[in-house]
Design brief:
Layout (H helix, E strand, L loop, with lengths): L4 E9 L2 H10 L3 E5 L4 E5 L5 E6 L7 E6 L13 E8 L5 E6 L5 E6 L6
């Protein structure tokens, strides 16, 4: 399996308004926001940053790596599959794996072709 780069950085926050203003102070612009306290920020050609409010959890940061084909992703014993590829509400497929140090990684692929 080969990734094609970082698709996004995913951040959770306890306070959406403060986090959004902080991102904007860093030069990021909101590409879109949702009615459930989340949104996508962009700054130039680099990876986007998706911020979501999760008020009752510790803030978290996760890299979302792009993969060209979900069907070609296979892991040896060095990674634990936490969730298999699933369709998301925003039009991609995502899988979560845990690395040997316990970090969670999200792999993102294009949606499956309808048969």
């Amino acid at each position: 399996m080969t990734t094609t780069g970082i698709a996004a950085v995913y951040l959770t926050t306890r306070n959406w308004g403060k986090a959004a203003r902080f991102m904007q102070s860093l030069g990021y612009e909101a590409d879109f926001t949702t009615d459930h306290n989340s949104g996508l920020f962009r700054n130039g050609q680099g990876p986007s940053v998706f911020v979501a409010e999760v008020p009752h959890e510790e803030p978290d940061t996760r890299l979302v790596l792009s993969v060209p084909d979900a069907e070609a992703v296979h892991f040896g014993s060095d990674a634990e599959v936490v969730t298999e590829f699933e369709d998301t509400h925003f039009g991609t497929r995502e899988m979560v794996v845990r690395d040997p140090d316990g970090r969670l990684w999200t792999l993102q692929a294009a949606p499956a072709d309808p048969a």
